[in-house]
Structures are given as structure tokens and as C-alpha cells.
UniProtKB/TrEMBL annotation:
Stated name of the protein: DUF503 domain-containing protein
Cited Gene3D superfamilies: TT1725-like
Pfam families with a match to the protein in the record: DUF503 (PF04456)
Superkingdom in the source lineage: Bacteria
Family annotation (PANTHER family): DUF503 DOMAIN-CONTAINING PROTEIN, HYPOTHETICAL CYTOSOLIC PROTEIN
Organism: Sporolactobacillus shoreae
Phylogenetic placement of the source organism: Bacteria, Bacillati, Bacillota, Bacilli, Bacillales
Amino acid sequence: MIAGLLQCECILYSAASLKDKRSVILSILRKAINNHNLAASETDFQDTWQRTTLAFVSVGTSRVSVERELNRALALIDGCPDIERTTTTYEWF
């Protein structure tokens, strides 16, 4: 059994309030949870309106399948014009 953790620190340039930030983040998190085999959460900078850290976790029988799911989470972030990834970290358990 392989567990993969993906942490992405991101900047939201167009967010003018925490409400703007939350709408962008919740859209990404909901898509990750509902459409992919991922657990997802905002893990840092909850009270900062232009910065966030998102974490995604996937568990599977092979590293290839887990990495594929985590890369889909990156595609969700990269496909959103309101958010930009600055730091991306993978961890394997």
C-alpha cells in the first residue's frame, strides 16, 4: 500500500477578500474530492487572503496510480486562472 501527499503553496493574485479566496479554493477542493480518488484540504494560511497551502492525499496499490491521481490535482490548480502554484512538494509513505 502506497500513500502519497502533495502539498502546494499558492498565491491568489485576484483575491480581494477571504470570501474571494475561499470561493476559488473550495471549487478546486470539491472537484478534487468529487471527481478524483483524493482527499483534499487547505492546510495553511487560512486567514491570509492572497496565499494558501493546499494538501492532497491519495492511497493506492502502486506508486504510479497514486502519482497519477496527485498529478490530476496539479492539473486542477494549473487549470484555474485565479491561482498560481509557487512551491510543490511530494511525500511518499
